Write a sequence for this structure.
């Protein structure tokens, strides 16, 4: 009774619209003939269609291949220093600078393993004088490593504060000190600077 003429005309046009198959374009005012699916139902249907094309065995095989490819990329990045594929602990300009800072200088700590072997051999010889020398060498080596680590940490912290004032530097000094304990040729990522070269 109170409906407008425009609404009546639209309703009549919708009723008169012929039912056609899905290949023909539907009249914009004609009823759809089915309810609109909920978003969750539509998403689950899309997922099921995407997942049905691959069996569990194929999915596991694909995952293994992807993991193997990622590990290979990471291995190559550790050798070349490519930032994109490095592990999370090695990424970023702060960590890169810390690595370069350590790699560009001589560190007493990196010679710890060879010195430890020499001292161990001396301590095993059953000569009192050599055993006393081995014990003294242990003390000297430990004191030198501690002093060198303090100097390295102090200088690195100063450089980091100057170069990366607004960035997160947490853990960078400890990261550099751990690297300084490794022999240069065994360090990963591989050193990208020469000794004496300014980072």
């Amino acid at each position: 009774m109170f409906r407008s003429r425009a609404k009546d005309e639209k309703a009549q046009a919708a009723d008169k619209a012929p039912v056609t198959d899905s290949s023909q374009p539907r009249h914009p005012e004609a009823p759809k003939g089915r309810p609109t699916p909920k978003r969750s139902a539509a998403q689950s249907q899309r997922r099921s269609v995407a997942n049905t094309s691959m069996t569990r065995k194929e999915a596991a095989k694909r995952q293994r291949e992807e993991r193997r490819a990622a590990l290979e990329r990471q291995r190559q990045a550790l050798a070349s220093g490519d930032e994109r594929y490095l592990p999370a602990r090695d990424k970023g300009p702060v960590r890169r600078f810390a690595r370069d800072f350590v790699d560009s200088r001589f560190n007493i700590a990196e010679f710890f393993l060879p010195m430890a072997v020499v001292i161990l051999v001396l301590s095993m010889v059953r000569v009192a004088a050599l055993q006393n020398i081995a014990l003294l060498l242990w003390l000297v080596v430990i004191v030198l490593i501690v002093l060198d680590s303090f100097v390295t940490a102090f200088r690195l912290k100063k450089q980091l504060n100057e170069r990366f004032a607004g960035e997160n530097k947490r853990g960078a000094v400890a990261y550099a000190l751990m690297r300084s304990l490794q022999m240069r040729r065994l360090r990963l990522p591989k050193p990208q600077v020469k000794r004496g070269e300014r980072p």
About this structure: Residues 17-22 have pLDDT under 50 and may be disordered. DSSP finds seven helices and no strands in the chain. The longest helix spans residues 128-163.
